[in-house]
Structures are given as structure tokens and as C-alpha cells.
Amino acid sequence: MSRSEELSCKKLLVTGGAGFIGSNFVLRAVAAGHTVVNLDALTYAGNLDNLSSLASNRQHIFVQGNIEDAALIARLLDKHQPDAIIHFAAESHVDRSIDGPEVFLRTNVLGTFTLLQAALNHWRSLPAEAAQSFRFLHVSTDEVYGSLAPSAPAFREDTPYAPNSPYSASKASSDHLVRAWFHTYGLPVLTTNCSNNYGPFQFPEKLIPLMILNALSGKPLPVYGDGLNVRDWLYVEDHCDAILTVLKRGRVGETYNVGGLNEQTNMEIVSKLCALLDRLHPAGAPHDRLITFVTDRPGHDRRYAIDCSKVQDELGWRPRESFATGLDKTVRWYLEHDDWIQSVASGEYFHRLPQASAAI
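The structure corresponding to this sequence follows.
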């Protein structure tokens, strides 16, 4: 039995479940026997093609809507009576937050506030046994901790917050709201702060899919600055297993850092991708000829690193994928899913109607 199957079958309200991490989580949760009510606004980052395998699955109930819609959330909670809320919904791209921070504040801060208030009202209305087992799990990022020097210790759960971009500041704000709703109102919350995710269904504004898709098209591979910014990389399916593990065994009110134990510079990532593509999809000339250095982004954090010993020691979770195996799986997935790539590249996915929407 996998770790994700250790959690007895539940009904979960998942926000942002058509996005990259959210859709991988929904697929994982449904496969493990859970029923998922999936609330997603279907912005540019939400793609129902990610969930096409669940089109006729009664364990997946899709609802198009926004987490800022308090009345909608209240109706969903009243109708479906979920055992837990898993909160992925967020604006998450640093460059976009620099160009237009307002939507990050609305979604990540006000949206999380609205969801917390609805969850609190719902939790207070539950019978004692259901209230005791109810959970609100908030999915956040390591970027809230700021930037690390090359030799500094990795981020721990007690590392002071020092966000440096509008995106990370908005996520830090949402983390603080979740903490406050636990300490002030007693809402049974859990928070996870993860490192950089990669894997299937990732929107190609992020480093790894952008480099894969550009390389396949013979386009330049743009690398910020000197390419030596360091991130810890977490395969998305490992992350989904960690979330289910925290949901099952995490201590209420606690934060758990989730990392892949894979620190890599951006240049190392791009070079390894080029080498993999040279082997799996040769182009007649080495792909690394396409690497192009571009002006660094404003306020670019130099290094992130996650100390995930707490989730390992307390809950027994550990990433299964090494960076080599995870990257190989990721490249192969993109090579085998050209229809998905073309739909995203053309924008066709964005104009499709939802598969189904719950009557609410």
C-alpha cells in the first residue's frame, strides 16, 4: 500500500485543482479512493486537459469558481460536507507578480481569508466527531523565507520570514492568516511549505517545461543572470504524497517543510535537460547551443534550500525520486504528450468549457 493510500477514503474540497500541482494531487487522491470536489477559477494556469482521465469518474466533481466568492464556498461546504480542505489555489509566478502584483494580493491574501472564514463557519457547525477530524491544509512555498547565502543552513520551519517578491510576500501573508485562524479561533489547520516542483502538466512559464518546449522548437533557452541561482527541486508526485501524509498524520497547527533534497543551479538544470534531450530527442546538434543568458529578474533570490527533516522524522515521508529519475520522467512525459503541449502553446485549452460543474 502506498503512502497516499494509507489515508482512509475521504471527501476533499480542493482549491486550484486544475493547476499544475493541484491536478497532480487530484489524480493521486482519486486513485487512492478519495472523492474530490475540485474548485478552480480556470485562469490561464488552470487546464482541464490535465484531468481528462477523470471525465467520467464520479469521484471527481468539478466546479468552476473563485475562492474570493464566499457564497459559493459556503454552498459547496454545506452541500458536500468535506472532511478536509486542501488549499492550492494561488497566483504563483514571480515575474507576473513583479509586472502586476494586485491580482496576487486579491487571490493569495483576500482569497485565502475568504476561504478561512468559510471553513471556520463550516467547522463550527459540524457535530463534535466531524469537527474533531476536520482539517484545513494550506499549501505554501519556500520563497516566504527569502534568500540564502551559499553556505547558509537550509530553511527550517522556524526560519524567520523574509519574502522578497510580491508573490512571496502574498504567500507569506496567507501563511500568517492560516496561523492566526488556528491560534485565534482554533480552526484545525496544517501548513506545508514546498520547494520548486517539477513534473507532468507544468505550465511552460516555469523553468523546466519552458526549457524543454523551447529546445524542442529550436528556440533560445533563456537563463537569468549568471545561471548560478540555486533551488531545491521536488518531483510533483512526491509532493502530493507528502501532502496526503501531512493530512493523515500531521499535528494540528504545525508547519511542515517539504523538499526534494536536490539543490541545483539553474545552469545545472538546463545543462542536464539539454543532455537528456540530446539522448532522447536528438536534433542534429547539441541542444546546449541554444543557451542564452538574459538580464536577471529584479530582486532575484540567490538560493533556496529546504530542511525537511521534520516531515521525515515525525511523519515518515521521504521523496522517492532522485533528481535524475524525476527529470528523466518529466522529459519523457513532455515528449509523449505533444497534444497537451500544442493545446497549451496555442491557447486552445483556455477556451474549452468545463467537463462538468456541480449543481450548486
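The two ends are 35 Å apart (CA to CA).
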